[in-house]
UniProtKB/TrEMBL annotation:
Organism taxonomic ancestry: Bacteria, Pseudomonadati, Bacteroidota, Cytophagia, Cytophagales
InterPro entries attached to this UniProt entry: RNA_pol_sigma-70-like, RNA_pol_sigma-70_dom, RNA_pol_sigma70_ECF_CS, RNA_pol_sigma70_r2, RNA_pol_sigma70_r4_t2, RNA_pol_sigma_r2, RNA_pol_sigma_r3/r4-like, WH-like_DNA-bd_sf
Keyword terms, alphabetized: DNA-binding, Sigma factor, Transcription, Transcription regulation
SUPFAM superfamilies, per the entry: Sigma2 domain of RNA polymerase sigma factors, Sigma3 and sigma4 domains of RNA polymerase sigma factors
RNA polymerase sigma-70 region domain location: 23-90
Listed GO MF terms: DNA binding; sigma factor activity
GO biological process: DNA-templated transcription initiation
Keyword DNA-binding: yes
Family to which this protein belongs: Belongs to the sigma-70 factor family. ECF subfamily.
Domain RNA polymerase sigma factor 70 region 4 type: from-to ranges: 120-172
Name this protein carries in UniProt: RNA polymerase sigma factor
Database matches in Pfam families: Sigma70_r2, Sigma70_r4_2
Length: 179
């Protein structure tokens, strides 16, 4: 089902449930992996995905179609993931650096991630980046999104995104060559 068909079917109370199931089936994997790259932990990524889809359901009828459906869903997912990290930081009374250390520990102890050393090293390098650079790098490098799509998701100018991506690449290169 195309996005426009999902939106039309969602507006009809008789087909709303089917349309939403189609939407979830179409985007659940991308949403999960997008969340996973931000929060690292499998259970947290599941929670983020679930919360994101709840928000999508509650707000889909009012979706203005000013952007693509998947960029709108990514924006919601990004916000939910960042909110989860902030809640963890606040709940545990720790700094963002300590949250990154906790995520790194989760990364190395997870049996769901590939044990390949270079992949693990790349993920550790990503955790050293500031939040915004990590988000931009993940969306550009892993999700292969265009800068204008990332701009819609993050609310950042394309020029700012290009600068963030460039800085992230340089920092990752430094981490990988020095580490």
């Amino acid at each position: 089902m195309e996005d426009k068909d999902i939106l039309i079917a969602f507006k009809d109370p008789d087909t709303r449930h089917i349309a939403f199931r189609e939407l979830v089936d179409k985007y659940k994997e991308r949403v999960y992996w997008h969340a996973r790259k931000i929060v690292i932990d499998h259970e947290d990524a599941d929670d983020v995905a679930q919360e994101a889809f709840i928000k999508v359901y509650k707000n889909l009828e009012g979706f203005r179609e000013a952007s693509q459906l998947f960029t709108w869903i990514y924006r919601i997912t990004t916000n939910e993931a960042l909110n989860l990290l902030k809640k963890k930081q606040k709940k545990q009374g720790i700094s963002i650096d300590e949250v990154a250390h906790e995520l790194e520990h989760s990364l190395t102890s997870s049996n769901l991630l590939s044990g390949e050393e270079i992949q693990l090293k790349l993920q550790k390098a990503l955790l050293q980046l500031p939040e915004k650079q990590r988000l931009v790098f993940n969306m550009k490098y892993f999700d292969d999104l265009k800068y204008d799509e990332i701009s819609e998701i993050t609310g950042t100018s394309v020029g700012g995104l290009k600068a963030s991506y460039h800085l992230a690449v340089k920092k990752i290169e430094t981490y990988l060559t020095e580490g």
